[in-house]
Each structure stands twice: as C-alpha cells, then as structure tokens.
Amino acid sequence: MAVNVAVVGLGFVGSSVAAALVERGVDVVGVDTDLERIAELHDRRCRISEPELPELLFAGLDSGRLRVTGDYDAVGSAEVVIVAVGTPVREDGHLDDSQLRGAMAELAPRLAPDTLLICKSTVPPGGTRELVAPALERAGLTCGEDVALAFCPERLAEGRALRELREFPVVVSGYTDKCATRAAEFWQATLGVPVIPCSTLEAAELVKMADNWWIDHNIALANELAKVCGAYDVDVLDVIKAANSIPKGNGNVNILLPSVGVGGSCLVKDPWMIWQAARQRGIDLATVPVARQVNDTMPHYTVDLIEAGLRRLGKDPAGAKVAVLGLAFKNDTGDLRATPTKPVVQRLLAAGSEVSVYDPLAVPAEVTATFGQAPAATLEEAVAGADCLAVLAHHQQFHAIDFTRLKDLVAPSCLVIDGRAYYSREKIEELRRAGYTYQGIGR
Ligand SMILES: NC(=O)c1ccc[n+]([C@@H]2O[C@H](COP(=O)([O-])OP(=O)(O)OC[C@H]3O[C@@H](n4cnc5c(N)ncnc54)[C@H](O)[C@@H]3O)[C@@H](O)[C@H]2O)c1
What we know:
Elements: E1 4-8, H1 12-23, E2 27-31, H2 35-42, H3 53-63, E3 66-69, E4 80-83, H4 98-107, E5 115-119, H5 127-138, E6 147-151, H6 161-167, E7 170-174, H7 177-190, E8 195-197, H8 201-231, H9 236-243, E9 247-248, E10 251-252, H10 270-280, H11 287-312, E11 321-325, H12 341-350, E12 354-358, H13 364-371, H14 379-383, E13 388-391, H15 396-399, H16 403-406, E14 415-418, H17 425-433, E15 437-440
Parallel strand pairs: 1-2, 1-4, 2-3, 4-5, 5-6, 7-8, 11-12, 11-13, 13-14, 14-15
Antiparallel strand pairs: 6-7, 9-10
Helix pairs in contact: 1-3, 1-6, 4-5, 8-9, 8-10, 8-11, 11-12
Nicotinamide-adenine-dinucleotide is lined by residues 8-14, 31-34, 37, 84-87, 99, 102-103, 120-122, 154, 156, 158, 265-266.
Organism: Bailinhaonella thermotolerans
GO biological process, one term: polysaccharide biosynthetic process
Protein name: Nucleotide sugar dehydrogenase
C-alpha cells in the first residue's frame, strides 16, 4: 500500500505493529529514543523474543521498506503516525504519562499537514482528549482539521502478537467522526482486518480497560478455584473444562487457567488505571484490588507448594536446590517485566534454598539484572543436582524435555512443580514412572 507510516516507540507493541505493516507492503519508519535499541536493529539484533518478529523486522530492514532511527524529523514525511510508547502506572495507580508527553512534545511540531495520528498506547478514559489533543493544540494544530486524531487500543497478547495483528478486529475511535473513519480506512487498507467503531475516544479507551480488567479478574477466579481444588485433591483443569461447557451470554462460561501468577506489562497495571480513573469520578471499584491481590499471592502459593513438596520427600527447603525453568511472565515469550517468577526466586533464596535459573528466550543480561544471578547456560547445567524442577514458563523449547534422561542429573527423589505447563494426565504418569513427584497448581 502506498502510504508512509511512522511508528513512534519500538517496544513490544510498536515493533510488532511495524512488522505487521511492513509484511503487508507498507513503508514504515520506526522512531525510538532508545538509541541502543535502534543500533541493535541496525546490527540485525532484536531483544524481543516474539515468534516471527525478528525475521519480519530484519527482512523489512534488508529490503529498505523499514527504517529505524532516533531522529524525530523522520515523522515529518509520514502520512500516518502511530504512537506506541509505554504508559506505566505509578504506585498510586495514576498514569505515568512521561513517555507519552515526551513523544507528543517531539511529534506535534513536526507533523505534516493532514496527518492521521493514531494512538495505540493504553491510556485511562479521557487520556487521548486530555493529554494528546492538548499537545497538538499547543503546537498550533487544530484536532480534526490539521491533524486527524484517533485512538485504537492495542489488544494483542505476547507470544501470539503477529498472528493476532493479522486477525484481530481493531477498535477504532476518533476526535471527530471523520478522524475515526480515516483510522478505520487505514486499518482496513493495510492490515485488512475488521474494525469495531466506537462512538467516542473514551469508549475505545474503556474497551481496553474492560478487556484487561476481565482477564485479570477471570484469572483471579481460576487461581482461587485452583486453591480449593488443591485442598480437595481434585484436578482444577478437569473442573474448568467441565465448568466451561455451559453456554452463557454469547459464548460459554470461560474460566481461564490458574498459574504461578500474573505479570507482564499490561495486566498488572491496566486494572489500576481504570480503578484510579473511577475513583476520580467518586466510584470505588472493589473488584480491581481484590483480583490484583489474589493474583499477587500466586508466587507465594507456588513457593508453599515447593516447600511442602520437598518436606514430604524428607528434604529441608533450606539447602535444597530448586531449578526454575522458564523465567518469563508467561509461556513463549522472553519478557521478564513484572514476572511472577521473580518473587518465587526471591522467597526461595530467602528461605535458604539454592536456586538456578534458566530461560532460553530471555536475554541473559536481563535475567542477571532481574534475578541478581546469571542464568544457567544449558538445561543440563540448570537441573544438575536439583531437588525440584519448577517449570514456571512452559516455552515450546521445553515441550521436548526428556525427564527420563534428566533423571541421571537431578538429585534422587526430585519434585516437578508445574507452574504453567498444564501437563496432561499421560505426561504426569510418565513423570511418576520416571521417579519424579508431580505437583501442579490446583492439581
Ligand atoms: N506489551 C503488551 O503485550 C501490550 C499489549 C497491548 C497494549 N500494550 C500497551 O502498548 C503500549 C506500549 O507497550 P510496550 O509493551 O510496547 O512498551 P515498551 O516499554 O516495550 O516499549 C515502549 C517503547 O517506547 C520507547 N519510548 C519511550 N519514550 C519515547 C519517546 N518519547 N519517543 C519515542 N520512543 C519512546 C521506549 O524506548 C520503548 O522502546 C503501552 O501503553 C502498553 O500498555 C502493550
């Protein structure tokens, strides 16, 4: 498609959107203030481990369809600018808008006339109107006339980003109806995905809040259900499968999966964003803190399982070795942001356990910075002498682990903790036959 697009912020979302657009033949320039990230891409290195992402970015760079730079002047020749900088929250749940303010201050004076500006960064209701629009106005631009301002929340999940960008409907809203129409036409012409129009910017902002509020809440329910199932010696996965079989609303009951905990860059902060936004209008959202708290207990629940399992095997957790396999916040990503595996490791170390950490997807320097210790170079090194193998992120690379072969390396009577692998009944039997003791979350 003959359109020049600038993507501002080449983190997880910006890189994925840029890659998806380049794949569809769009010319993209990516702008990021992190010059190390830009240099890495120039050297054909990508610190984000997301299926297909490095290949698509490198192919785009090689063909010249994708350019990456730290120079904001590049946005001046773009017809469409997509903003995907980070929007964390502060301790009190308020938006930390520093990246967004910084990006808008650089962008606004450089925009060509009639640019379509699409914000993808997650903001609380009112964020686009109160933060982005004024930055444009300050640069002398009239929203809806000199610049078409749209908000289209990003809803993809790490590990499946490219697949979802090719398929997911895009929620579209605009400062005016005309802005929204232009954004809708852009997504249809480029990614070719359906669009879901929202009547106002605030409605689209709330769609994103609602999605992540629901997911966090649903996982909290699954986690508490797992705790009860564990206490009654029932497999929580059997219960969820059966419970999910009745129709409700326009789908089925859909209880998600319990795990070692919730992490990443969205679910731990977006619920707080809506909680704080509601408070500002005098509404107390009681469910948000409860779900957050439940999900935050899961790393500790997991450590309790590890320690109880070790004691049942006659081992003192102090002095026992635990190999944590999979450090990322979920399966098939190397993202360590707010990973629930960190409190697991911290508590084990505090209890005097020896801990080895291993994740083939995570950047080793980030592992060292996050966990205070270097990762094992190989699976074999990680598990050597281990009294417990805690599989806390079950990447594709771990599907082929031959536990029978590892038996010669681990300590006698080794515990396997399933934090997110959801091993099948057959696999659990196989583990038992090989001499391991299995323990899952609610299983
Ligand atoms: N990660 C996800 O799975 C996901 C999913 C949906 C939505 N989101 C939302 O998308 C947004 C981006 O998330 P992310 O995970 O990609 O964040 P990220 O932290 O991975 O990336 C942000 C990027 O923006 C760059 N940046 C910061 N300030 C800048 C500036 N002034 N100008 C140019 N670049 C700047 C940073 O260097 C970084 O590369 C957030 O609002 C997030 O909530 C994230």
